[in-house]
Amino acid sequence: MSEKQSNKITETEFYHPSEKTKNNANIKEYDDIYKYSVENREKFWAQRAEKLQWFKPYDTVLDSSNPPFYKWFTGGKINIVHNAVDRHLANWRRNKIAVIWEGEPGDTRIFSYHELNREISKLGNILKCMGVKKGDIVTIYMPQIPELLISMLACAKIGAAHSVVYRRVQRGGARGPH
């Protein structure tokens, strides 16, 4: 490793938010919330789970009967895509920004919840036409671009598990996992 690279890795800079940003934050009292989450773990996560839409309510927040194989929200049925995207389509968030992506060269792409859902649904239908079904495992090999997120959510939407292999793209071409 060169000296320049070494200095970059150990160099640390802090950028503190402005007062305006702090006042508009969703979590203003992080330390208090963190302390509460540690001291009241199950109650904390039950309160967070109330903000999600469940297809079937859970029976138990935490099943710790077989450590270290803990199970969270046993008996419940939930779909991450429904909570992350779909539930926003029927309200004022439909046309709000869901994803802002910026590439290293500075190019940007922006997706509203509606646009994101359209892309997820299109890819989900393509996967189903290719024979992918609930319970299958799909390996996704691509760089960190919006289509990676869309692919993961499309798999989740149709009930297929996914495994991601991140591919790094550098100037002058792609470099795989080797």
Structure description:
The protein has about 180 residues and is of the alpha+beta class. The protein has 2 domains: about 80 residues, no CATH class; about 100 residues, Rossmann fold, CATH 3.40.50.980. The protein has 7 helices and 8 strands, in the order ααααββαββαβαβββ. The strands form 4 sheets. The protein has a two-stranded antiparallel sheet with strand order 1-2. It has a two-stranded antiparallel ribbon with strand order 3-4. Strand 7 and strand 8 form a beta hairpin. Helix 3 packs across helix 4 and helix 6 crosses helix 7. The radius of gyration is 20 Å and the shape is globular. The model has no long low-confidence stretch (mean pLDDT about 90).
Largest sheet, if any? 2 strands, antiparallel
Number of structural units classed as domains: 2
Low-confidence stretches: none
Annotation field: number of helices: 7
Strand content: 15-25%
Shape: globular
State the CATH class of the largest domain: Alpha Beta
Q: Distance N terminus to C terminus?
A: 18 Å
Mean pLDDT: 89
Total beta-strand segments: 8
Proportion in helices: 25-40%
Q: Tell me what the CATH architecture of the largest domain is.
A: 3-Layer(aba) Sandwich
SSE topology string: HHHHEEHEEHEHEEE
What class do helices, strands and sheet pairing give? alpha+beta
Kindly report the oligomeric state of this protein. single chain
Q: Measured on Cα atoms, how large is the radius of gyration?
A: 20 Å
The largest beta-sheet arranges its strands as 1-2
CATH topology of the largest domain: Rossmann fold
